[in-house]
């Protein structure tokens, strides 16, 4: 846990610089690397483990300054978290820092800053409304647009005269355009559907956007393999009139699935719109021309990457808009590598290969360098770059502490096991250093959260799972055999695996994978069948609790981080319209799919860890489970963090939690 974690890598529009956020022992700061030497350096100097995140880095057009947001809830967008319980309170504010140095300057309270291409002002959000502010010192913010709905996705036109944004209205959403000269607001081709992801044409005359069909379905955490086909619309930015450019076909890919990108649509060179689509049952990239007439709406999108059983994930457009850079697990299903392809689907080529993991590629403004984040089995995540045919090199190698124990870490082995119902499940096996094959070891099974996640054969690209990988390594160092399971409903293995039948609140079919993992370990001669435990967080906490509730004879102990224990009281946190009383059968299945439904057979001891300001899995989930366990006289311990949220924001809490977990497991599996 001593290594820092990098995120939010972004390239300046001019000058060749790149910037990223680095979390070092809970203190988040902006780091930059500039051409031509690209030696990373720290730009801001926050020092406290205070739980205040930094995100939403936005460059000024000249590439000499950048804006960032510090504090706030970047995931659930609720009140500002204060996990360090600072009595003076906290806020979410936009700051500006120059590459020449000096202390950052606070601009305004708010989020999602968008700097005008003219470089003179920014638009931003405050309480879901659009405000604006000049960037010079002493300027005051003012509300730019007074409109209904919740605004998001602010996008300036190329000349800075207009601002596109999304206006969400409970069960539908619009794309709107504000014209600063005319002081007017135009809604683009409005409908009952959900419109999002606006992208401007280079001449500023048109906007392409996504349209996802309206649905009154009030449910979550169940399979959606198909739906009313989504579409791409093209609208006149001045008049608002629009037309359908293309729509997905029925069947696989008809329900939209997003890639990890600044926008879901790229307007590439030659007026090609680049987008993700699961037509083959795997998420790939495609492009389509905006030049086709209405009579040619049936045009077939051009595949940009080879068809096959792999998925793209992180993507960005090159500086000249001619190529797309992306990560995928092509030919290496439990890792990520980088690729480049033209917007016409030509010249597909790998940028990285090998046993490492690379993600979040961005091209520098001069087109000469690709920056990325990378890791491998032993070396944690860090910012790196690649120029032409040269090897990848780290941008800030000194950011990794000199005493980091990379050489002592084990290299996890890929494993494919059989679930209880026969489905093939990928996993990573961590063996203790110098493990004796003739000796029986205690074993732990780890389940990731999400469930839209995939653990990899190395340090993960998300901070939560970067930490979890560290914990799995630590457990291996203590003598445990650790199995990290990529259960059904996770990503990386195609649409049908992700949208597994009866998963989650519709039947908990993932329990087959929990059981299969336990039986796999029990069959190994080097595992003590009486000393197998479970651990995981969030969705992984759900599976940990489910395994303990249904199979205490197989699983001797567990550590449940903020797990789901009753689906009926969690679904409404993500879908407020969900009402268990309206669909009694669905509610019954949801409860039967929950650990609380099987608590009568729960006998194994458990450690429950939860922050009471959790916005993802309500704290009541642990309250209800504790009440039920007490009635059953089941041994449990609890570690509760006042004011902490779901993914702990302070390093202090992570260390407390992991130390407590190791001690609890040791007491029960290594007495």
What's the N-to-C terminus distance? Answer: 26 Å
The helical percent reads 10-25%
Backbone structural class:
mainly beta
Mean pLDDT: 96
Task: Please outline the major beta sheet.
Answer: 8 strands, mixed
Ranges with pLDDT <50 over ≥5 residues?
none
Strand runs, count? 40
Radius of gyration: 25 Å
Overview of this protein structure:
The chain is mostly beta strands and 671 residues long. Helix content is 13%, strand content 34%. It contains 8 helices and 40 strands. The protein has an 8-stranded mixed β-sheet with strand order 33-34-36-35-37-38-39-40, sandwiched between helices. It has a 4-stranded antiparallel β-sheet with strand order 1-2-3-4, with no helix packed on it. A 4-stranded antiparallel β-sheet has the order 5-6-7-8, with no helix packed on it. The longest helix has 19 residues, at 651-669. The protein starts with a strand and ends with a helix.
Brief summary of the model shown:
With 671 residues, the protein is mainly beta. The chain is 13% helix and 34% strand.
Sequence-ordered SSE layout with sheet pairings:
Blueprint lengths: L4 E7 L6 E7 L2 E7 L7 E2 L11 E6 L5 E6 L22 E6 L6 E5 L1 E5 L5 E6 L2 E6 L7 E4 L4 E7 L5 E7 L4 E7 L4 E4 L6 E7 L5 E7 L18 E6 L5 E6 L18 E3 L3 E6 L6 E6 L12 E2 L8 E6 L5 E6 L8 E6 L6 E2 L6 E7 L5 E7 L6 E6 L5 E2 L18 E6 L5 E7 L10 E7 L15 H15 L3 E6 L8 H4 L12 H13 L3 E11 L1 H12 L6 E5 L9 H4 L9 H9 L13 E6 L8 H13 L3 E6 L9 H19 L2
Parallel strand pairs: 35-36, 35-37, 37-38, 38-39, 39-40
Antiparallel strand pairs: 1-2, 2-3, 3-4, 5-6, 6-7, 7-8, 9-10, 10-11, 11-12, 13-14, 14-15, 15-16, 17-18, 18-19, 19-20, 21-22, 22-23, 23-24, 25-26, 26-27, 27-28, 29-30, 30-31, 31-32, 33-34, 34-36
